[in-house]
Amino acid sequence: MTDDGITHSSAIGQWPDPVCQVATDDGTPIVEWVNEGFELTFGSVEAGEPAASVFETLELSVVLGPDDPGEIGTTDDTLIIESGTRSTTAGSRDRYLLRVVSADENADGVFLFSPLPTGATRAAGEIGLDHVASVISHDLRNPLDVANARLRAARESGEDKHFEHVARAHDRMERIVEDVLTLARGAAVVQPDERVDLASAAAAAWGTVETHDADFAVDGSLPTVVADSNRLGRLFENLFRNAVEHGGVDVTVTVGPLAEAAGFYVADDGRGIQPGRREQVFDPGFSTDDHGTGLGLSIVGRIVDLHGWEITITESAADGARFEITGLEIGCENVA
């Protein structure tokens, strides 16, 4: 069914994740075509089958979304799908974030499946399943809207450039899901067994964040520490993103060593954090921004805790926010 003469963008055909193209027949979504990624992941289907029948045949069940499978594809939507035919480990089933761009009288619809990390939406932990569902169904809305708009543009114009925007939106969604899992999982999520140069880790993290006109500086000589390099990078990313989002696009962010403790600080010259809110900001779901997930600083606090470090918030020399992380293991020999 991957090469049956149905018109579709070449980029959709080459997309590595499962993609399904649908049309409507009296309001019922009908599968017209699937890409190779779909067939390799879920199995083959016949063109002309109702989408609901395909889901039943391939044992694709809705974990988060409409109770009636017949409603899938009738409107733009975001769902979580579980596959009963493929599993990553014994006793577990793969789950996918399904982005639906519904068909209309001018263009076919698209189902785009994105694999979710093992454990997504099963997490109960500190934030609870309700908040996991809230993040996935609500806080993913912005990148999903971007992805859906670009998918519509791609299918109408046939221009592959729109998929660059879809890919960036996908990266944003992956980061949100990973943040949720970092909060929900236990100590196994952090493996502090590497020697990490703080200055290099901070600079690399700064390069991954949308910083607009913000400036970055390292004040003093930062040490090498024992840490989980990936999670330390996420800690820096979230602190930098918080500074830019709340301190302004032209904020200056500074990283430096602490003079009287084994640790470092991240400071900015933004508007700071009120003393009464300095403990709250680490609570999952707490945000002073209507468009925020309330997860960024919660992730920071979680990573700090799982390393056995401590974090405090004070006021920076420029009246902004200053995060101090202490309790680090400094100057060790190779621990790998």
TrEMBL record:
UniProt key word Transferase: yes
**Name this polypeptide is given:** histidine kinase
- Kindly list the residue ranges recorded as spanning the membrane: none
User: What GO molecular functions are on record for this protein?
Assistant: phosphorelay sensor kinase activity
> What is the species listed in this Swiss-Prot or TrEMBL entry?
Halovivax asiaticus JCM 14624
The record ties this protein, via InterPro entries, to: HATPase_C_sf, HATPase_dom, His_kinase_dom, HisK_dim/P_dom, HisK_dim/P_sf, Sensor_HK_Regulatory, Sig_transdc_His_kin-like_C
What's the short name of a Pfam family annotated to this entry?
HisKA
Keyword annotations? Kinase, Phosphoprotein, Transferase, Two-component regulatory system
Q: Which reaction does it catalyse?
A: ATP + protein L-histidine = ADP + protein N-phospho-L-histidine
Gene3D superfamilies documented for this protein: 1.10.287.130, Histidine kinase-like ATPase, C-terminal domain (3.30.565.10)
